[in-house]
Design goal:
Largest interface: A-B, 96 and 106 residues
Low-confidence stretches of chain B: none
Strand content of chain B: under 5%
Order of helices and strands of chain B: HHHHHHHHH
Number of helices of chain A: 7
Structural class of chain B: mainly alpha
Number of domains of chain B: 2
Mean pLDDT of chain B: 91
Structural class of chain A: mainly alpha
Largest sheet of chain A: none
Number of strands of chain B: 0
Radius of gyration of chain A: 20 Å
Number of helices of chain B: 9
Order of helices and strands of chain A: HHHHHHH
Helix content of chain B: over 70%
Strand content of chain A: under 5%
Oligomer: heterodimer
Low-confidence stretches of chain A: 1-7
Radius of gyration of chain B: 18 Å
Mean pLDDT of chain A: 88
Shape of chain B: globular
Distance between the termini of chain B: 38 Å
Number of strands of chain A: 0
Largest sheet of chain B: none
Chain lengths: ~190, ~170
């Protein structure tokens, strides 16, 4: 049996789900999705690469933290409701504890000039990472001439006019999704 | 009660969080800093920086915001509010997903939401830049990170964060 044979998949119990997703959560910096793929598909073989893509597709299509949604899906598939609770809790528990320790340190030492300088530097680098991420995501869009104007409108509404995001997203999704719907129909 | 208010505000946001918590930065800033004055600009930027430097899903910036506003209860309420509504929905939807996949309306939403998500991330970047009050040196650092991240794909972003931290400590940024 090869690693890609669906029959070779293993069925994790609750403990394995918790530990598996803990290791996913703790191994990633600035997003854990690539680690989720490696752990779930390559190492533990809880799902095939195709299953991963389809289910990630659903998780990315819906709003909310993608990887948390993915944990719910994988947990449910293997262990029902209990799995759907244990997997995301495992994903978040470790990183949450770390982040709270950092928060305590921040409350205690955040005022020191050294910490202020460090956080300023990280914020500048993090801001660069966000611009780069927007650039890469924008470059991946097909039919740029049609869809990138919606990017510009979103930036104008959110960053410049400071309109509330729910209304911007609903209107934007109707316009941009409607255009995509129309284009799909013409093919 | 502030924890309840926090939960409701963030639960509402979770329904429009296309592109994950990162895409929500501008709206969280609007709600938390501009509308409620729960945090100031500097603290908000610092929390974003801490989340960048910590392991784990991007959603944990929400945990930090909740913590600074209302302590442990706030941290848990904010995290739960961001994760729970969609988790429940996806738990109920997943079995019918096979039927949705590939449908025209599903493709249309996926295609349509992408340019909006790009706009949200870009807005988040400008927001962090303005609330951090980046100095000219800070802008140079940010630009260098953009270049390095796009040019050297195999370079882990954590190195760029670390470089930012070191330069920040030495007073550059």
């Amino acid at each position: 049996m090869t690693a890609t044979d669906p029959k070779s998949r293993s069925r994790p119990d609750l403990r394995a789900l918790f530990l598996g997703f803990s290791s996913v959560g703790l191994s990633g910096f600035g997003g854990v999705l690539p680690f989720a793929r490696r752990t779930l598909v390559d190492e533990r073989r809880w799902m095939t690469a195709e299953e991963f893509n389809t289910q990630l597709g659903l998780c990315q299509f819906l709003p909310g933290p993608n990887v948390v949604n993915l944990a719910v899906v994988v947990g449910k598939r293997h262990r029902g409701l209990a799995g759907a609770i244990v997997a995301p809790v495992g994903l978040l528990a470790g990183p949450l504890a770390i982040v709270l320790v950092l928060a305590l340190l921040y409350d205690r030492f955040g005022g020191l000039p050294l910490a202020q300088g460090m956080l300023r530097g990280i914020a500048a680098a993090g801001c660069g990472l966000l611009f780069a991420m927007a650039w890469r995501m924008g470059a991946a869009i097909r039919d740029k001439a049609i869809f990138l104007p919606f990017t510009a409108l979103t930036v104008a509404a959110i960053a410049w006019l400071r309109w509330p995001m729910p209304i911007v997203m609903i209107v934007g999704l109707i316009l941009s999704g409607g255009l995509a719907w129309w284009k799909l129909g013409r093919k | 009660m502030i924890v309840g208010e926090l939960f409701l505000e963030f639960a509402l946001l979770s329904f429009v969080a296309f592109g994950g918590a990162t895409a929500l930065l501008p709206e969280m800033h609007r709600v938390v800093v501009e509308n409620h004055h729960w945090l100031d600009d500097t603290t908000f930027t610092h929390l974003y920086a801490i989340a960048q430097a910590a392991p784990g899903p991007n959603v944990l910036v929400v945990t930090l915001i909740g913590w600074e506003i209302a302590g442990l209860g706030g941290a848990l309420a904010a995290t739960l509010a961001m994760c729970l509504p969609m988790s429940v929905l996806i738990y109920l939807l997943i079995d019918r997903w096979e039927g949705f996949a590939g449908k025209r309306w599903q493709k249309a939403i996926s295609l349509g939401v992408a340019p909006l998500a790009v706009g949200l991330i870009f807005s988040g970047a400008t927001l962090i830049a303005t609330s951090a009050g980046l100095s000219p040196a800070g802008w140079i650092l940010a630009a260098a990170v953009v270049f390095a991240n796009l040019r050297f794909r195999e370079l882990h972003p954590l190195w760029l964060i670390a470089a930012g931290a070191v330069l920040g400590i030495s007073g550059f940024a």
